Write a sequence for this structure.
């Protein structure tokens, strides 16, 4: 290499598909400086695949800063367009896999995988500069002229499968709401054995009646306005207290929906209940959570009295007069923001619970046949 100035990365050398690649540990403070990201400088055909979703960056940066003692970041993968030279270390000469990767400073680095991490690191360093001394593994591929760059992007993302929401909640030990929903799913007699902790959509033959993600949405609605304790906030309910409150409500709800208990007792199948009734579907669970939220501040006796009215509601799919347009469309269960509101409105009216002004306006628009958002 004849360049006067160069980057030097302590690296490990490997081989894939007959081509050498290199892995190096880079301090976080160098990541934004070395891996520049200027969409205007990239070829249009490359830029089209690498537009940042900037709304994701603050969330990732917050994760990094808030969990600076317990975060995990996967490697960044980058292509090098320029001259490189690997100088082996040790007595093995050219056979050594450990050495220094020297890269001409005129070279270009294009991130194939990890540009949102790179942008989030840059943002996090502004808030907590000490993170700059920590390291992140970077995988370098040599790609002269960036001829393989697009294909590498496609190959790296070809088999990527996003984790289901339920599984993400099951494994998330930082988020208070996820902790609450796991406790509810595991400790509630109502949900015991009936919750799929991995899938967010149940097959027709599934023996489960609920998903963890649907219970989580319902619990969020139920606890709306309830302050939870966090590492930064000592006031409010603990996770255990909030989970206990949710369990108490679900016990009362289940006492007035006999089909749930029949599934638990194996007297009817979960598939038959989901096929014939709507009360185990996510949209209705969330609506029930919203209904329970309105009852948090009343006495236990009055709460039980209100919820006893659930037993008088016809939850069958065939009750199109009640459910069509609210949580069903053309006989199929649908879930959007207005579906949850309209469904909770109907349940509240059946239980004698007054609607808020916003809910009343939504209800009036629905009855006029206007499109509800």
């Amino acid at each position: 290499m004849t360049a006067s100035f160069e980057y030097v990365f302590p690296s490990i050398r490997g081989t894939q598909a007959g081509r050498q690649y290199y892995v190096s540990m880079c301090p976080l403070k160098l990541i934004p400086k070395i891996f520049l990201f200027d969409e205007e400088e990239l070829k249009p055909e490359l830029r089209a695949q690498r537009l940042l979703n900037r709304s994701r960056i603050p969330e990732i940066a917050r994760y990094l800063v808030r969990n600076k003692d317990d975060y995990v970041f996967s490697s960044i993968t980058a292509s090098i367009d320029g001259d490189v030279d690997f100088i082996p270390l040790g007595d093995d000469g050219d056979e050594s896999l450990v050495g220094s990767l020297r890269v001409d400073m005129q070279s270009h680095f294009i991130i194939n995988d990890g540009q949102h991490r790179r942008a989030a690191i840059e943002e996090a360093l502004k808030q907590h500069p000490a993170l700059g001394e920590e390291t992140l593994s970077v995988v370098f591929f040599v790609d002269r002229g960036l001829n393989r760059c697009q294909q590498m992007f496609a190959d790296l993302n070809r088999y990527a499968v996003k984790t289901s929401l339920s599984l993400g909640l099951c494994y998330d030990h930082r988020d208070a709401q996820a902790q609450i929903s796991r406790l509810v799913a595991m400790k509630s007699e109502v949900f015991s054995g009936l919750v799929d902790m991995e899938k967010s959509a149940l097959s027709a033959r599934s023996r489960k009646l609920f998903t963890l993600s649907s219970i989580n949405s319902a619990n969020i609605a139920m606890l709306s306005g309830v302050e939870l304790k966090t590492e930064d906030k000592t006031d409010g309910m603990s996770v255990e207290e909030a989970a206990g409150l949710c369990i108490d409500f679900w016990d009362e709800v289940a006492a007035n929906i006999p089909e749930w208990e029949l599934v638990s007792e194996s007297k009817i199948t979960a598939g038959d209940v989901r096929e014939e009734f709507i009360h185990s579907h996510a949209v209705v669970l969330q609506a029930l959570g919203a209904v329970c939220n309105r009852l948090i501040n009343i006495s236990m006796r009055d709460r039980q009295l209100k919820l006893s009215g659930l037993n008088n509601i016809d939850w069958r799919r065939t009750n199109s007069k009640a459910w069509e347009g609210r949580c069903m469309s053309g006989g199929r269960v649908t879930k959007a923001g207005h579906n949850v509101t309209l469904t909770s409105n109907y349940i509240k009216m059946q239980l004698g619970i007054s609607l808020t002004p916003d809910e009343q306006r939504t209800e009036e628009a629905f009855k006029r046949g206007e499109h509800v958002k």
User: Anything to note?
Assistant: The chain has two domains: 6-158, 165-367. The chain has a mean pLDDT of 89. The chain is about 40% helix and 15% strand.
